[in-house]
Design goal:
Layout (H helix, E strand, L loop, with lengths): L2 H19 L4 H28 L6 H28 L7 H24 L3
Amino acid sequence: MTSIFAVPRALIYWKREHDRLGEFGPLGDLTIRLYRFSAGLGVIALATGLWLGGLLAMPGWVWLKLGLVLLLVAHYAWTGAMVIAARKGRFAYSDKFLRIFNEVSVLGVIAVLWVVIAKPF
């Protein structure tokens, strides 16, 4: 879960390191490893959550939560695309964009937590 926040932040520092060194440095390796490790755990978490939730018998609020989680998955997949591009030495986004991109995931997690606590329907 923390990698949703950590990987975009690591991309910012990796971009700065790449600009300074002009080559692939240790932050790049760290970012790639963190992304891969967390992606695998995310797949396990999604599969386990669906299994425990009993896919067809879930109340409405759980479907909303699942939709929000899928948006977070899409966000993390986009992060993965940025990591792959950065590995090739292409940093297409500015520091400012990456910071905003990082905060979007925070809002997504807050929305998921609100749905779980409030159970709006």
